[in-house]
From TrEMBL:
Residue ranges of every copy of the ABC3 transporter permease C-terminal domain listed in the record: 271-401
Location of this chain's protein in the cell: Cell membrane
Keyword annotations from UniProtKB, A to Z: Cell membrane, Membrane, Transmembrane, Transmembrane helix
GO cellular component, one term: plasma membrane protein complex
Protein name: FtsX-like permease family protein
Main location (coarse class): membrane
InterPro entries with a match to the protein in the record: ABC3_permease_C, Lipoprotein-release_system
Domain of life: Bacteria
Chain ranges passing through the membrane: 269-292, 312-340, 374-396
Bilayer topology annotation: Multi-pass membrane protein
Family to which the UniProt record says this protein belongs: Belongs to the ABC-4 integral membrane protein family. LolC/E subfamily.
One GO-annotated biological process of the protein: lipoprotein localization to outer membrane
């Protein structure tokens, strides 16, 4: 029966090639879309967690606290050391965010001073990815600060100039002079206009000795939001160490808006898959139906010779399966080749890359696709083949032998 079905598919060669090509295009397109979505999701996840961490320890409901002192983790080094011992291999860093007034020679702006550990991952992220001029902030001798480029323009200062930070009503010294060590480019222009990076020691002496606003934890090898199991396992290890009045958040809880955006990708791709495969299915129905019409007399002879109607229906369904799955195999090969090529790194065109960087999309992305996604694409193709064959198969099963043999196409 399979050989007869294949012979029937090849009989309408031009029509079958067109339909198979359409199925191949849909399968290849879906695999490319899955690969591209993997690149977008993983890239946005990695971009975000480089600056937020995978786990964040902070005062409970710190985002709702307006008083600076109430939102601080006092004696942060001791707590930081306990967390690091509980998760060997993880990077545990303290960070102090200080609202301040930053003034140049003639202008001043309200800013957020980010106090980062000089050798930590957060500082390295600023230096390697965001620093566009000068060098990182230092606290050897004179203090220095790296300013957002928009902030530097607003203050009319450049690398090497002096700026003054004022932080009144805190437990630190409250005011200090800094030298502009470098300029930082940030994806969001509004953030660039209010960001200054200094060392953690300088921020603590300026505003809150021995304190931090959050402790950020980076887990090794966590590169995708699908690795939720590892995240929860680490969180459960640290839970007994969290003091009363504090909370340990995952990146999802710290950035719910970004998590919602990433979670939307899967249902969105499913909708696209349904639309594309429905369109391909219409072509398959047309091809199988026209092949049936051209062979009505043959079906009549076969039925008259004793073939049962279920056998005829199975023959039509097998033809549809051969047509769709052969096209799907070609499409999977082409799509897999494209995803493999994109997995080595690709970028959107220049203007688009800069525009989408505002939303956290990396400039260089790496496509990735999971076996489950490949299986899902083939499941859609199989479902399309079966659904497209139902109506022609039902018509073939209703043929009367005498009338069928009299049919003139």
């Amino acid at each position: 029966m399979w050989s007869l079905a294949w012979k029937n598919v090849r009989r309408g060669r031009g029509r079958s090639l067109l339909t198979g090509a359409a199925v191949a295009a849909v399968v290849a397109l879906m695999m490319i879309m899955y690969g591209f979505s993997g690149a977008v999701v993983n890239g946005m996840f990695q971009n975000m967690t480089r600056s937020t961490g995978h786990l964040i320890l902070r005062v409970k409901n710190a985002d709702k606290i307006r008083e600076f002192e109430r939102g601080l983790i006092q004696d942060a080094p001791a707590l930081q050391e306990r967390l690091a011992r509980a998760l060997p291999g993880a990077d545990v860093e303290a960070m102090l965010e200080v609202p301040a007034l930053l003034a140049g020679e003639k202008r001043s702006r309200g800013v957020l001073l980010y106090g980062l550990e000089p050798g930590g991952r957060l500082m390295k992220e600023f230096v390697t990815k965001k620093l566009t001029a000068g060098g990182p902030p230092q606290d050897d001798g004179d203090w220095s600060a790296a300013l957002g480029r928009a902030l530097a323009r607003a203050l009319k200062v450049k690398v090497g100039d002096g700026v003054y930070a004022f932080v009144p009503n805190t437990s630190g010294i409250g005011a200090a002079a800094f030298t502009v060590s470098g300029l930082v480019a940030l994806p969001e222009s509004t953030m660039e206009a209010r960001t200054a990076v200094i060392t953690l020691a300088a921020a603590q002496e300026l505003a809150a000795p021995n304190a931090a606003s959050r402790i950020v934890i980076f887990l090794p090898g966590l590169v995708s939001p699908t690795q939720q199991g590892r995240l929860e396992q680490a969180r459960s290890k640290l839970a007994p160490l969290v003091p009363a009045g504090f909370e340990l958040l995952t990146w999802r809880q710290a950035e719910p808006a970004m998590a919602a955006i990433l979670d939307m990708m899967t249902p969105l791709l499913l909708i696209y898959a349904v639309i594309f495969f429905v369109l391909a299915g219409l072509l398959v129905v047309n091809t199988v139906y026209l092949g049936l019409v051209e062979r009505i007399r043959e079906f009549g002879v076969i039925i008259a010779l004793g073939a049962d109607r279920w056998r005829i229906m199975r023959l039509v369904i097998i033809e549809s399966l051969l047509l769709v799955l052969s096209g799907a195999a070609v499409g999977a090969a082409l799509g897999g080749l494209a995803v493999w090529r994109m997995s080595h790194g690709f970028s959107l065109p220049g203007p688009l890359a800069r525009q989408y960087a505002e939303f956290g999309l990396p400039v260089v992305m790496y496509a990735s696709i999971t076996p489950a996604q490949v299986a899902l694409v083939f499941a859609f193709a199989l479902l399309t083949a079966l659904a497209s064959a139902l109506w022609p198969a039902w018509l073939a099963g209703r043929l009367e032998p005498v009338e069928a043999m009299r049919h003139v196409a």
